[in-house]
Structures are given as C-alpha cells and as structure tokens.
Amino acid sequence: MSLTSRRRFLRESTLASSALALAATSFSRSPLFAQASATSVDANIRIFPGEPIGTIQPEIYGHFIEHLGGVIYDGVWVGEKSKIANVHGIRKAFIDTMREIQAPVIRWPGGCFADSYDWRDGIGPRDKRPQRSAFWTQDDSNQYGLHEFMETCRAIGAEPYLAGDVRSLPARDFYQFVEYCNAPSTPVELGPGQPAGINTLAAMRAKNGSAEPFNVRYWGVGNETWGCGGNQTPEEYAGEYRRYTTWLPRYEGEKELRLIACGANGDDARWTAGVIKALNGQTPYGFSTHYYTSGDKAHFARGSALQFDDAEFYDVLARAATMDRIITDSWSALGEADHAHRVKIVMDEWGAWYGDDSRLGPHYNLSQQSTMRDALLAGITLDIFQRHADKMAMANVAQTINCLHSLMLAEGDQFTVTPTFHVFKMYMGHMGGQSLRTEFSADSITNAIAQVTAVGGNSAAGSIDPARSLAGLSGSASLKGKTLTLSVVNPHLREAVTAEIAIAGMQMASATGVVLTEPDVHAHNDFAHPNAVTTQPARTGTPTGGSLTHTFPPASVTTLTITVA
Ligand code: AHR
Fold first, then answer.
1. To pair with 126 at 20 to 30 A between CA atoms, which of 79, 362, 371, 453?
2. How far is 547 from 528, CA to CA, in rounded Å?
3. Residue 105: closest CA among 220, 266, 262
4. How far does residue 101's CA lie from ligand 1's centre (Å)?
C-alpha cells in the first residue's frame, strides 16, 4: 500500500490503524498543541520544549584523521612546496571546508596507527625525521607530525584530540607527551638549591616552533584496546588505564584534562561494564565507542558503496539506526559502576564501511565513494546523537577525508565535498542548542534483508542484530533562543511524506528550510562533478497558528529553521 493511499485526516481521526497513529490523534487533541490543520498528512512530528534532553555538544560534529591510505598524505598534507594551494603544507581546501562547518574537534593520529606511533618521530626538522613501518602496511615519512597537526587545528579553529599510544610505548612517554604539549616555556622558580629554568620538553617544543603551549585537553588513553590496541581483556585494560593516568603533569592556567578511556566495539556492553567496574571508581571524561555500518555479510562482504539495490539501501540505514541501541546499552553499562553518570559517551569512530570496490586509488587504503545513502546515514546518526544529548560528549566521523565515511575526497589537485558534507553543514544550527524531546509518527519500513538473516552485524560492530525495520521518518529538534532547528530524514525511496509539525505550547512565526535530495540515491560527487549533489532551499508552508505542514521528499535530509513566537 502506498503512503499516499494511507493518508489520514488527523483532525477527525478516530479510526487510527496503528499505535503510532493513535498517538498522533491524541497529540492533536492535547491542549498543549494549537488546533491541528485539516491538511491531509502521512505523519506527525510533535516537539516538546518542556522536555529538554540536554545541550547538544558541538563536539558531536567532531572529526578523525589517521595516518591511513590517503587521509593525511594527499588528503590533509600536500607539503609546503606543493603546487596545490596550501597553508604551511596543509591543503587549503581542507582547511576552508572544515572552517565552513566550524569543525569543533579533530582526533589524530589514529585509530590503530596510534597504537604503534611514537610522537617523538613527528617533531623537529622534517628532513631529519625517521621513516617508519606503520600499522596500515605503509611506511610513514613523519612529514606530518604533532606541530603540523596543531597548525591544522589552529587554522581551522578546532580543538585537538590526541590518541595516546598505550600498546607500544611506556606510561612515561604518555605523560611526557602531555608535558611536551602543555608545559609553559617560561622560566620556572624551583626554590632553594635549584636554578630557575625552563622545562626541557617545553624548550624543545619552543625550538620546534611553538613557544606557546598547545594546551591540549582531550587525550585518548589507547585505541581499540580490545583489538589492535593490544587484544586486552576489560580488566587488563582498566589496569593499564589506571597506571597511565595515575599521574599526569598539570600546569597553571591550562584547561582541565579530559581523558577518554577505550570503550566498546559496537554493542559490546560486556566490555564497557567490565572496564568501568575495574577502574575502581576512576571516572574518565568519556568512554570511546566505535560503531561502523556495513552491509549484510550474508549477502556481500561489507556491501558496496555504489552498487546496492532497494533492500540493501534500507538494510544499511536500519543497521545505522541501531546506533540508538548502542548508546543506550553503553549508557546502562556505564551506570553499573558510574551511578551518577559522570562518564559520557565519545563515539569517536562512526560511519559507513563498505568493500573495496570504489577505492580512490591504489595507495588510498580504506577509501570509498560516498553517496546520497551515506548522507541519509549521517543524518540518521547525527539525529540519534542529538536525541541522546544528555549522554554524548563527542563523536568523530571516520574519517574526514579520503577514507570511509568522508566529507571530502582529494587526489592531487582534484577536490570535492561529498553529500555527507552537506548534512554536516545543514545541521550546524543544532550545535550548542537545547535538544528537545520530539516524537515522529510515521509508518515504518520493513527491512527485508533482516527478515531472512538470523544474525547480522559486521566485524567492527560487535554483536549487532540487523534491525528488522526502519523508522519512516526520524530526526531531532533543538532550541536556541527563539530559533528552533528541526532535522528530518525521510528514508522512503519513492514516497514523499507529508507531516504536520507542532510545538507544544508555542506558536510558530516563520519557517525556512534546506533540503538534500536526489531522485537516485546512488548519486554522488566526484572530481569531474563536484556539485552533482548539493542542497537547495526547501519549500515549506506558512505556519498557521501552532502548526506547520511540510512535505519531505523521498530519500531526503531536511532541516527546518523555525522562529517561535
Ligand atoms: O577508521 C579505520 C580503523 O577502524 C581505525 O584505525 C580503527 O580504530 C578502526 O578499527
């Protein structure tokens, strides 16, 4: 049955056929909502300003760049002598694009690469830096190191988030990494019997170009310690965490250090509960969790970025939506020991991870194209983060350029943004807003692949069962002053969904919108067609009293900016 034939006149609706539709009927009768319109609609969106969830940390729009394939070399770093436009060797288009979306934080240098990376290799004159064998079976010239990363963050206006190596370096190197970054390079009075002097590592940093401390506050204590970070048990890792963080140097006037412990692989709540319990009362700032979305293994190994049918399209989005369960399961697991919920979730690797068939070039390990499907996946994921604003401290898309779920692709002097970049830009209005409980009532979509697959998931996802259905509309709402931002994903491949939007207890003065949609969800940008997929203004109705009717096109991501009276 098509959506259109299921349209309901909600105002008079007494014969709602589903629980959600029943809920919609009761919304329209609630005194909190102004009189609903008589327009024919498929769905309802109800926003509750009286039920704030939490402030949306801008850091959930964070990034991740690793020494892997073409991410750093060619993606971010082209070198000062390059003919490609650059700022001190950093690709200018990368900086400009990150500034355009106000990228708040960047994680570096990995990933698995970080688990065998010595930060001392990447400082000092570039022509003296060692060439090393590195994790992703590629040698690294160390031309891009700590100072180049800090310059990247500075040029963008982003906070650095350093992943410390706790698999192959001793604890001393971890605290000296903090010391090198954060110790002041001004003389320090040491008291009787000792000459006043400058901290040796700070002096080294100054000699290497930065007298000012980097003042880094986000520190990852290991990466994927359940896997490439040492194949540890939760108890073993908790012991390492305690040992590496028992003492770290602190300096007057610096920002509070925010330590991030290694959390679970997908929905592995057993890991999360095991680590938090074995931390014996220590409370890191966050627990890093990783969840990648791949296609169903029973059908294709990880799936293809560009070749997929309708069933695979819905299956991947349904798997992406299991992020909701991963967050709530991780939260419950943390609560087993951290009863006050001081430790927040840092989803510092997320995105789509397909097979190798759309790799950019031979040296671009783990690179893939990014289509409209991935834009919808990004919208669904960011909306989930926002609906859990009380739990989420940060998230980092993996990875920003030339990799899995990228916002940019670059090869030599060629450059393009992907559809996912547009979603990040469209969602900027949410940053720092107050997330509001929002209900979406729309008929869900059956995931045909899940119906025939007993157990799904992918190697990086832990034990994720394929979701059996996908919400027919999903999204999130946030409020900043009198501006309400509503983002909505319509995953239906061929059906527009018309929804009546209402805000409890508030009138709407005006609304504008932006939409990302394409008739073919395989649509993507490439170097020859960098603007094949782009946004356009969304034509929306005029709010009448407390409600607004809006039609969300098939396979679309929309943001509406509503001024409330
Ligand atoms: O993002 C690619 C890799 O995926 C990272 O290096 C690792 O942490 C994860 O397994």
1. 362
2. 43
3. 220
4. 24
**CA-to-CA dists, residue 498 to 66, 318, 494, 502, 564, angstroms:** 42, 21, 13, 13, 21
Instruction: Return the residue whose CA atom lies nearest to atom 4 of ligand 1.
Output: 111
How long a stretch of residues is the chain? 565
Domain that residue 324 falls in: 56-169+198-430
Q: Kindly report the CA angle at 467 between 497 and 375, in degrees rounded to 5? A: 50
153 plus 265 within the same structural domain: yes
Which pTM was predicted? 0.93
Two tokens, residue 294 = 């791949």
Residue 76 domain flag: yes
CA distances for 174 relative to 118, 181, 220, 222, 456, angstroms:
10, 11, 10, 10, 38
Collapsing DSSP states into helix, strand and coil, what is residue 386? helix
Task: Inform me whether the pLDDT recorded for 316 exceeds 60.
Answer: yes
348 Cα to the center of ligand 1, angstroms: 10
- Catalytic residue at 212? no
Domain boundary among 373, 405, 430: 430
pLDDT score at 301: 74
Among residues 375, 395, 430, the one where a domain terminates is: 430
pLDDT reported for residue 456: 38
Q: Is the dihedral of CA 192, 198, 202, 204 positive or negative?
A: negative
CATH of the domain at 465: 2.60.40.1180
Q: What is the pLDDT of residue 191?
A: 87
CB 272 within 8 A of CB 263: yes
CB of 241 closer than 8 Å to CB of 279: yes
Catalytic annotation, pick one of 224, 254, 312, 495: 224
State the CATH number of the domain containing residue 244.
Answer: 3.20.20.80
Domain count, the chain: 2
- Per the annotation, the verdict on 349 as an active-site residue is yes
**Ligand 1 nearest atom to the CA of residue 110, by list position:** 6
Q: For 478-528, how does the pLDDT look when each residue is reduced to its tens digit (9 = 90+)?
A: 999 999 999 999 999 999 999 999 999 999 999 999 999 999 999 999 999
CA-closest residue to ligand 1 atom 8: 111
188: phi then psi, degrees, rounded to nearest 5:
-115, 130
Confidence band of 25 (pLDDT split at 50, 70, 90):
very low
